[in-house]
Structures are given as structure tokens and as C-alpha cells.
């Protein structure tokens, strides 16, 4: 074991070089900058506001053109001259104070608030961890709740309460609030397995008190037995000490690996953000642009139980709270393999203070035993020619634990030019108590699966919408569908009667590029018609999806109005700096009057423009007993695959022939 | 490097134990048995037949009931008593001799031919490597071909000719034959990159001579430059020496790993066959049956060019030749990781002789850096509870190189009870020559993509049909579809307006269980309604597919008539020992009068029966330049996932709570 640790350390030392972070315009805010922002605000005209809380603090990026210019000039100039070219450093801050939501832009170089705007639209900014914790704690001290517990013979010390976002259901007047749901741990650490059902608690986040309390009925409490899950010790690896085919480096937030270079940022709302991903073309002998920006834009997790305790559970975790805020400190050897390198992240709390999140992101080379390419040729007389290479990829991983669920979020870069975006779902199901202990007793609709005695796990969906600002060899791109169509053979020179061919369509405007994937076969591509391969094909990247899913809710149902875009998996918009969040920025209690559906009503032109591809990955989750008490990871992915982007398989550029 | 090799050897010694093979009724024929079969036939009444060639030699398995009985008694008795329970050992042999195809059953214990039947139906048995080689060599000596070469100024020494199966296109009378297509290597080992187009050559395999020869036109020959691909050296790994979470053993053809045990056979037609896969249930404290048999049943690869050189290319590689016969000797460190164990295979040549194929199958533990399950709980006051485990799986791999294409065929077993069946496509595209060097010159239909100057890669499909004889906790199973249906909320006690629920349907007969997957969401399951979980759910395994594809050819087109089942991805049949090959046993030049489509016309009952699930995985392949000169592996998979099979996630059975 000593020997392998020494070997591992040696390889770590060989493979990785880390230097002090330098300021890239897309770098997340540093703790020093976060402190500066708070100080600037505290010294400003806002200092008189009571109970000022910070709900969103992020770098306010320079314009895309400026960033692109910075990138191209910084890559061609020496590192010493970089500092002189720094773009203005600004932050976007959303605070609540004096009962108002204010959008601020803080200029860090000028040390000034350069914009202060009171937001008066629908919806609220992301919730803070601190107010959610307060809501739980205050509820657990509420006399009405204590009485409910005593009526059920439950010990208060064994209760955990969780605040859940309450959605929007047509109310004309509403206040910021959450619904509180409570669990009885007593004998387990799997709190979700023992829900205390029958109590409705509405907590007002402006008044910071319970405003509605209803103890409606008592339900049996599922047993603690069989609900625990604990790791077995991992010994001593796993790791891949022997992978030396390729190396990677992390300099600040810049990752270079094989032919790839890209910027990785940790963001409180989106989690991992991949920016300015370019790939070196060994034939053209230069880096070529692929993806200006990619990240999760929104999630939508509606539960399929229309009863009082459940109807409102229609979560939009990214917008309501934040995948970055929910990011978990990664466990070495469990969440990431032994060869992983970790990147820390900083979050801003409700008081504007920077909080370190150690190991927010990991980056590792993956060798899963797969084959990148291979062929054996026996057609050359007297020889058997075997060729091939093992596939080594680079994975950038983050895990968001949003209450009960854990989302494993991967960006995987391949030497072939592909980017695979993977999502793994694990964690604990949301469950309700029932008096039934066996299916043969069931007489009414359950809205889910009985996964244990007295325990029903509720049917639900997960939709993850990705923002994919592809810049295939430049900004001017188009979105193309190549449909495969059955054809009859017209000239009957052979007995063959049919075949399929490819009908290509370039989409002109937003409305037509809104696509619900069907079983009709088609390739979806982002192409650059201004740039051709050696034989004249437009260069492009293809979107290869997994099994598609779209929302099955009614169009007029409130959660669906807020996330209307989930009826289609694919949307294309012209790039606009302000259009990042598919359900709008103010997602908490939103009314559906911002976001993808609204922006695209203008039906803007998207041909030969700087376009953004939005893809929604979906899971319909009918729970099963194997999901209890902890889910085996359920995975899905999509791939951005170079398709006539290179003149030929780029792997062969590296191979001496 | 020395140290790591020593470590590796140590771990190999610790992890694997191999004993002398013992005879399991599903074991493939040993070289000794193959020799015995040949001797028995050579001494029989068949000895007078001229030019007797062996086209198929396989174990003729005992009846399933007998095998199951043997399995259950052998697992409960001591190993010494096993020998007394050996089932009769028989072989199925198909020979051609005296112009007739004969089906023989050879009893190895009695040393007798116990069945001799002359087959007079349509189609022919699998082609032999020897006759295909002869066809190529004889064509290259044909004076007409030599003249064609000289007319093109091509050197005969640089030509490679390949025989292609010719399909069936409505001929009433036909003879066994192949079409020969030739390539000019001169300067490359990528023979497919330089097709010599414009020559039609029909080779008669009964007469063993060219019977049709037409030199129709001359096409430009694509250049050799840029067509090569060669491996870079792999140094020194990759491997996973540190994975010690789980061990596996191979005893003869029996593999045990974690809770799984199963039988792996190498078969000339199907390639890898997985049999009698059972999983140990830590709660019930016994092995439970999952999959009696799983293997590739047929492949269908139609090309989408209706012209003279291409229309007939509608390959059924498994039936026409055999995935096992096409299996490649696996390259350690490239095709399988450093920790892989290899299993040899034996093939029978045209003369009835056993041929060793070293490293036909590899078995390895995979750790790809993924997470089997995890959760972080912050809801327990004062604690942050992190749990999880890395995911280690067991992969059984074979690679079939069928001419230009390489199929990487994986069976991956998970500790959660899932089986993932993966297919990777790599190798070289089939291409035709063209006078075009750039897309802007193109004026007519190309039937494919220009991937290099003068080179068009033809559009095509790959359909791989899997035979999946699931026996979920016993023989009596049913096939169930759980459809997700949008519902309006009827009782308006909450403002929620819609949800989805699950409508279950058990299929009664074959005709209704023929399913074309659509975007309508549904779960497909094989359930055992006679066996319930602790809370009364029928135990089951779910089929989770990737992006589905079905054949786009016209129903009345000849290749589609031969593979009519490819219009639907899912079929269910009652188990019948003789129904193994989806397009019928005699696939070469078949007329579509055997196989899945024909068997199911009887519309047999499938409820609570021993049923077989047939799933067809499909790829529509529109080639791109990145596929040239060698394809980066394109992957697809499906999963058989336990769904209410266990009372809870079986991983938690191992975890002390």
C-alpha cells in the first residue's frame, strides 16, 4: 500500500501542474472580491436598508465580443502583457432589503454601485440557506407544531423539518414563503423515509413566521428498520495510476487536456460552467472554437400527486435555490476516483460573506476499459493487421444535493472532439406515509409505488435544461435538421425497391426550431455554413440525445405555465447576454412571464447568427423498490459530436502513417 | 514499471482462481469433441459424399427443463456426484455434400449420427471462411478480371478482393453464391478506402467459379494518402490494479462475481452467449434466476444505395457468416484493460477441424470513476452525513470484425442487479469512388456523405437483434407495459390541474406484444406475477432502451421481407428451443419464410408462460468525415434493470446499519 501511494504521488506530480490563479474575465468572484462587494454596498446609499440579505452575487461578465477579443489577444500575447488587458470587473448582485428586491451592478475597479434597480415583476430571487434554516427551526418551536407532535406521541428532539418551495398556483397576491414538511428520524438518519404526514405549514419569509398551520389528519409512521444506508470502506483505491497516454493541467480556472482547452467556473446558480472550449486541430494547426458556454440552466421536478401535501411540489432547483449552492464537497475515492484533482468554490451567504466550499468540482482522466477506435484487417495478403487505442477521456464533475436527491453532473471531453454531458440521479426518494402495508390492500389511487410497508414513493419527473452556446468555428452558426426519409427507388435498374436518404433543413426562425423529439429519425446539428471542410461540407457539431422525454402536464396547469419550454426538448435562440435562465431569473413563485417561452415569442431570426441551443434531458421516474432506501444511480446523457467538423478523424492526425 | 507489474501479478493471483473445465451442459464443444464429431461423420454413411464441408457445428443443448434440473441439482450436490448426472452430449451439425444441405445430430456418448435430415427450404447455411477465401483468390486469377485491371493500369499484386453476401431479390431459382468487390491497396493497408468500382462479379459457390462478369465503367480511384491509421504505443497500462472491492472467478465457463453467477460460452454464430445468470439475494439468502439465455440473434446492415454496385448490400452477418467466426483475438491493453482475464474459443473450419481462437472473450472488472449510489444528509441536526460507493462492474467483451466493421459487444453486470448490454461500432466505412472532389460539384444523388476527395461513404443502418430469455424468478413470466398517461385532476381540492399516472397492461398474445417504440412514455417489463415482493409488487426486470430506431425500408422490399421484424424493436414469444435466430437459421439468401415474423403469426399465448424477449438495437448511420479513415467508436446500449425484483436496493443488504 505504501508503494502504490508513492507511485500515485509520483504520477500526480508528473501529470499535473498548478499555478497561481490569474484573472480571466469569466473567473468566478474571489473571496477578496466578494468582501469588497459587501463593503461597497454597506458603505453605499443602501446602508440604511433594514435586514439587507444577499440572494445572488455573481460576476457580471463583460460583453461576449469583449471576452472573445480578450481571449484571442491573450492567447497570442505573452503572459506578462495579459494584466494590462484586463476587462472591467463587475458583479451582479440581487439583494432584498426594506421589502424590496434590488438588482445591483457593482464595479469593482471603480468601487461603485453603477446600477441600482428595484425589481417589481413576478417571482423572487433565489432563497438563501440561512432563511431556510431559520424557517425550519422556527417552525419546530411553534406551539401548534409542538402540540401536533405531542398528539402523535413524537419526541421533538427527533424531528427534522425541511422547507420546500411552494410554487405558484394562480394567486394574484402572494408573499415570499415556503411550505414546511417534517420527518421523524427516531432510529434512522434517512429522514425522508419517515414523513410526518397530514400537517400543512406555510412559512412567510418576509414576516419570518408560520402564517398558515393546519393539522389535518394523522397517518401511520413508516418504520425506521431497513431505511439506513452506509458506505462500506473503500480500500485502498480505486484509481488509475497507470494512465499516461495523456496529461492535463489546471491553471487557475483554465483546463488543458489533449487537444482541448476550456475554462471551468463554479457558479452558485448553475454549478459547473464550461466556457470557451476550443479544440486544437492538428491539420489546421490551430485551436478551433466549439462551445462558448455550457451549463445547466434550469431543472424542473414536478411530483404527480395532486393532494394537499404534494400538489405544490414542482421544484425548479436551479432557479429557486441554485445547483452551486446545493453543491456538495466531493468525497475523494467515492465521488471521484483517486486520480482526481479538485477545485474549490466560493459561495456568498445571506450576509454577503464568502464561504469556501472545498472540493466543489473534480477533474479526472477516465479510462473505463473502452476502445477509442480499432480495426483488424485480414484483407492484406499474408498479414493480420490489428490497430486500436484505449479510450481515455477527461471528466469535470460536480454533485448537487438538493434535499433528498443527489445529481451527479458530468462534462466529459473526448480526444475525438466529442463532449458528453452526463447526469446521474441518486439519493433518496420523496415518500409519503400510508396505512397500507401491502398492495392487495390498496383501493385508491396511490400516485406512486409502494416501496416499503406504509411507504409510497411518489411518481415524478426530472427535467434538466442545458444552455449550450455553441460557437462552431466562430459566432455565425445555423441550426440544421437532417431528416432520414424513406424513398421508393424510381429508376428500376436494380431489383432494390427502397432506401432512405437525408433531407436537410436549415431553420430560419425560433418558432420552427422548437422541436419535440419523435421516433422519426433525424440528426440535429449546429453548423457553420461559412466554413467548409476540405471537400466542402459545412462544419458542424451534432446533438445526439438519449431516450427523450417531455413534460406530460397540461398546458394550463400552473407548474407547466412556469416551465412551458419542457413540452419541447430542443429550442434555439439568437444569443442574448440576458437570456441564460430557461424559466426566467426570478424562478421562485414565478408566473411564467420570463424565460425561453417568452423570449422566443418574438420569433427572431436564427440563421447564420450567434445562436444558443437549449436541450432538456428528461427522466420520468416511476419509483421501484430498488430505489429504496437509497437509489442506485440512474443515468442519462447527451453528446455533442463533431460531424464534418474535422476533415477526418482527428485521432489519425496524431498517428504516424 | 517493474513494481507495478509485480503488484499487478499479485493482484491477478489474488483475484482470480481458475480450475480445469468441467462439463456443463451448455459448455461449447471442446476440440476433442469437435474431432470426435468429424470422425463419427467420416465413418458414417455420409463418407461417400463428395466435397463434404462443415458449415455449422454447435452443441445441441439438452431440453431447457433438463438443464434447469441439472443446474439445481448440481448446485445442491457435491462436485464428485456431478459427473454421474451429466446430460447426454449431442452436437448439431450442418454440412453440405453432394449438392445437398444436411442437418445432423451427432450423439457423442453413443458415437452415432442420430438424425440426418436433408434441408430443402430456402436459404443456405453459414458461409465458410475457406470458401470465401477461395472465391477471392480464384476471382483474382480470372482472365477477365486481369484484363479489367490492365485496362485500369492497376497491379494485380496490390489488389484485395472481398466476397460479399448477395442477399435475395425475388429470384425463383438461385444457387449459393457471393458477389466479389475489389480494392486497390497500393500505398495503404486501409483497403476499403480505395474501391475499384464499376465491375460486377458473381461467384458461384457450388461451381466454385465466376459465373457473371461485367466490367461496366471506370471510376477514379481515391488516393492512398490520408487513409492509414495505426495505433500509438500503449505505455504501460492502462489497468486498474487497485480495485479490490470485489473479486471474480472463472471456473471453466462459469463466472462468479459479487452476487452474480452465470455461464459464458463462445459460439460461432452468436459470439458470446450468457446463460443461466442468477443473482444472490442477500435478504432471501438464495440465488434467484434472472436470464436463462442472452445473445445476439441476428444483425441487419442494409446500405442505402440502390445502384448496381450497392443495392444487394443488405448484410445479415450473424446468420450469413457468424459473429463468433468473425471474432477477433482480443488485443490486451487495447481491446481490454490490463486487469482483464481472457477466455479462448474454438471454431470449426470447413473441414470439420477445431481451430483455436486465443483470447476470444475477455472478462474484466470496470471502474470508470462512476458512483454506484451516494447521498449527503444535512437534515440531521449538528451532522453532515456523507455516504456512497464507487461503482465497480463486471464486463464480458467480445469483438467481431466483419470485413470493414468492428463490433464491440459487451455484457456488463452491476452489483445493483442490472445488466447493461453495450455495442460499440468502429472500424472502417464502406465507401465508393466518385469523380467529385468537392461538394460544390455534386449534381446527382450520392446516397451518402463525401468523406474525402473522390470518396463517398454510403448511408446505412445497423440493427442488432438480441435474444433475451429472461426467467425472472422462474419460468412463468409475463410481459407488461406501464404507460404514463396525462390525467386531469378531477377532485378540485387543490389548485393543481394535471399529473400523470401509470396504466399497466399485461400482454396476452404475441401479436400485441410487437412494439415499435415511440415518444409515448412507457416502461417495458418482464414480470413474474406468481412471485411478489414484501409489499406485494410482482417481481420484474425492466428493459431500458437507448434512442430507438427501426428499419425505414419499404415492407415489400426484398431485404425487408427477409428481416421484417426490424420494423418493431420489441417482440415477445413463448419459449421454443428451435426459435433462436430472428431471421431464421438459413439466413444466407433467405426468402423471409423463417424467423420471428413467421413464428409469431400463430399469435401464441404469452401470459404467465416461459417467454423470450427480443430487442433490436438500431443505428441509422449517416457517415461523417470524422468516420474516415477509421471510425471513432459509436456506442449504444440497453439495460435490463431489476424493478421491484428486490425488496429494496440490494446494495444495502451488504451495508451494516
Automatic annotation (TrEMBL), chains A, B:
Active site: 317, 405
PTM per Swiss-Prot/TrEMBL: Topaquinone (TPQ) is generated by copper-dependent autoxidation of a specific tyrosyl residue.
One of the GO biological process terms: amine metabolic process
Signal peptide residue numbers: 1-21
Cofactor binding remark: Contains 1 topaquinone per subunit.
Record domain Copper amine oxidase N2-terminal: where: 24-110
Domain Copper amine oxidase N3-terminal residue range list: 125-218
Keyword hit for Cytoplasm: no
Modified residues (2',4',5'-topaquinone): 405
EC number: 1.4.3.-
Record domain Copper amine oxidase catalytic: where: 246-651
UniProt entry keywords in alphabetical sequence: Copper, Metal-binding, Oxidoreductase, Signal, TPQ
Cofactor: Cu cation
Pfam families: Cu_amine_oxid (PF01179), Cu_amine_oxidN2 (PF02727), Cu_amine_oxidN3 (PF02728)
Entry similarity comment: Belongs to the copper/topaquinone oxidase family.
UniProt protein name: Amine oxidase
Taxonomic source organism: Spinacia oleracea (Spinach)
